[in-house]
Amino acid sequence: MIIGVISDTHGDLRLVEECLNLMPGVELLLHAGDFYEDAERIGSGSGIKVVAVTGNCDYMVKGPSEEMLAVGSKRIYLTHGHIYRVKHDIALLVQRSKALGVDVTVFGHTHYPTVFRRDGVLFVNPGSPHSPRRSEASCAVLDVSRTGVKARLCTLPKTAS
Q: Is the whole model's pTM more than 0.85, yes or no?
């Protein structure tokens, strides 16, 4: 299954559309918070199933702060990351991921794209298409198969941002 991953869209649906253009064949979209309403709009406008969580900028919105998904035999944990203070240290998020026994953790909040493995868990932060920090505007794609999960970061064309 091809899964699109975005975060920190901050109301810029034009850039979200640019992200979707980089994700051909996406069957599911994960939105890791900050503008939960964007996820709702994407789902209704694109026909793609969207799973989203709230972030620190979603204080007036009701929605989950964490989601667990089963995709085939893989377990994916989705959170914005601010409740685990990911801007300062990843240790609390790693601890939570291990306690949940997940294969993949998707988070945002830092606006900085990264993919890494720690303690057997694949961590994916898609960055931000709207307001990247120390990087280009970005999103990510997960490819979940019977043999495992692969992640790749996608950079938006400079003309898009």
A: yes
